[in-house]
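As described in the Methods, two query proteins were run sequentially through the folding procedure within a single session, without resetting any intermediate state between them. The first query and its resulting structure tokens are shown here.
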Amino acid sequence: MKIAILAHVRQRIAQPFAGGMEAHCWQLAAGLQERGHEVILFASGDSDPRFTIDSVLAEHYERTFPWAEHRGSPPLIAHLDAGYEAACDRIADGGFDVLHNNSLHRFPLAQQRTAAVPTVTSLHVPPYDALHWFVAASPAARHRLTVTSQKQLRAWWPDGAPPEASVLHNGIDPRRWPFQPRGNGEAVWCGRVTPNKGPHFAAQAAMIAGVPLTLFGAIEDPGYWQAEVEPLLGPTIRYGGHLPAKALAREIGRASVFLFTPCWDEPFGLVAAEAMSCGLPVAAFDMGAAREVIGEAGVMAEPGDAKGLGAAINQAMLIPRETARDRVLAHFTHDRWLNRCEALYREVSVGSGVSQHNPIQVASTELVF
């Protein structure tokens, strides 16, 4: 198939990944290419050159519009609208069999566009006002919508999801996150360093538990880092930098427990699945889809409760590492995810009605929370 992937353009689709959305889009493009599809990645022009890039913007907008200027910025909105409108026009004229839309932008959702190019839209965030109405109006014969968890499905459609919407759990390549049979007795955390990811809670909990902790990830919010995280660094709490996936997998695999501290309705939690693949049990805040992803491979604490998370750390370290790896192999593999993507592409390409036995929706109910 000839497949267009339309990316979010806040960051480059390249390593080291800024966050889960960038990792998801990179893995999607790489995986589809490996399966023999012709893939064009519509992303920022400074994305990974291993892909065929059709630039939505010349460079990712974080470089032009710093993080503090994102919210409601008219120049940024106009900049994105111009880029996405032109990209959507090129996709319409490009002879694509299907578009996989990861953009979080309203233009690809318009029914006149999905009628022209069969589209699968993946929603990677909880509902928010700027996009909610456009998503609600978008279901159509040649448009499918996916979310990454049952929790997210209920958030987007509290009165019941339309038949065009289903749960498509994220998948990772276990080869890139290899199992390590033993840990070193320490804890690890990774993600974007922002308040809604809660690394300061991870540091506080590790100190309470008496377990050394290393934090990894991009410092997205410097003010938060300086005020809440940096003062906690010391002999047992350190910052390990922002690493490419291979180096990060090696560092994670050495540890004995992964700390997952969402302070928002986390739609999935890709970093938790990656750590579980390496064999790490998880101590987590019970927020968003954390319980759905982690299941029997972790111990939950109440959101924002550093003391409770400290206790969860010591309990989680008793969980066999094989339990964490086995959960990923059963539910969150790259191949399982790509198989479902291809099934959706075939469904929208032929323009048939929604299957009464949607394999993605049925499979999503098998998880034990």
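Immediately afterward, the second query was submitted; its sequence and tokens are:
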Amino acid sequence: MNRMLVHVVMIVLVAGKASTSGTWKLTNTRVTFGKDVYLMCLLDEVECNTSKQEPDPRGWTGGPQYQLLCMDGDCRNSSKYEMITQSTSLNFGLLIHNFSESDLNHSYTCSCGFNDFHGNLSIEPKQVISLQSITKTIKDKNNINNDNMAIEIMLHKVNPVPNCSALLKGRFINDATVTVMKWYTYYNDVKVIYNFPVDSVACEGRLQILCNLVYTNVSIFDEYIDICQENNESLRTIILLAIGCCVFVMILLICIYLVKRNDTMYHLADNV
């Protein structure tokens, strides 16, 4: 209880003071939603002397509610925040686990003793990598039109807009069409559409659709398909229908011929 009281008193004291020489920075060149982000507080001996103070006067404040996050090496929400200290340096950091959009555009303050260093955690959307969920896959195997099988996949909260390609048996076939359905600040909802060409050579095997996100390839479709039989059945159905139509037309022509012949004979008999 006394230790926490010391922490609270220290935060109250540093809240009214500011230093212009210290700073903190985001060390990640790119941030990935769902991964860790690291903030580094840069100090020198003039601004903070930890050897003469007990407990450790270094701490972090901030977040969506701008509250005390960590002090003296301990963090209130250890599953979300972790304080990183170094034995050979006064510099210390804040590790934010499972980083998300809710952690952005808020003030964060690193403090040591009576010195505190403020900053706003913001980042350009192009520096964000996000692939939250693959929510819907439509694979219409029973409806092959114009020798193509349509595959549609919805990707929610993805950034940047990916480039997607299809591979059959590990070999590149063609690019997929990617359409932005809805745009947000840091991500997009996109639809990936691929029309798989069906022929007698490439109608079965492991079909993959891979999307490239900056430097990461993400598999959004990976299944073994075999639609050769379905394609052959469709062809047989078309052939049978064509034969049936031809037979029907021939029967119809024969019937017309016989009717006309009977009429002719009837008229000849009347004349006689």
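Residues 228-271 form the longest helix (44 residues). We note this only descriptively and draw no conclusion about the first query from it.
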